[in-house]
Amino acid sequence: MIDQAGRSTSARPATAVKPTAPPLHRSTSAFRGYRFPDDVIALAVRWYLRFRLLYADLVELLTKRGVHVDASTVFDWVQHVTPLYKEAARARRHRFGSGGPLTRPISG
Questions:
Q1: How open is the CA angle 41-44-48, to the nearest 5 degrees?
Q2: What distance in Å separates the CA atoms of residue 30 and residue 42, rounded to the nearest whole number?
Q3: What is the mean pLDDT of the chain?
Q4: Domain-embedded: residue 18
């Protein structure tokens, strides 16, 4: 059928299309909730822990790489992520006397 405006009408009523929300991703990342990518946060924290840089120096290094961030943000990252790195390092720490190649007698 065609209505007075020249549009085709069908027997089925038109249904409104509901916009679908993007799926909720439940990230288990330690960096969940931060605005910057995980690798940027991890890099900044590793540089701070490894080289003992000042927060202002970290901001300068990140700015040279195109990441514009404030020193207080880097401070927050370090305060949040450092305990996680310490725990991960503790779990991988080698125990002395656990039997390895150095505990076998050397025959000459």
A1: 140
A2: 10
A3: 79
A4: no
CA 40 to chain centre: 8
Q: Answer yes or no: pTM beyond 0.85.
A: no
Which residue range forms the structural domain that includes residue 59? Answer: 54-92
pLDDT tens digits, residue range 32-79?
888 899 999 999 999 999 999 999 999 999 999 999 999 999 999 999
Q: Which residues pair with 2 in a beta bridge?
A: 8
| Mean pLDDT for the stretch of residues 85-95 | 80
Q: How far apart (Å, rounded) are the C-alpha atoms in residues 91 and 89?
A: 5
Contact criterion met (CB below 8 Å) for 69 and 37: no
- Whether residue 78 contacts residue 63, with contact meaning beta carbons closer than 8 Å, is answered with no
Count: domains in the chain = 1
Domain presence at residue 59 = yes
Residue 103 lies in a domain: no
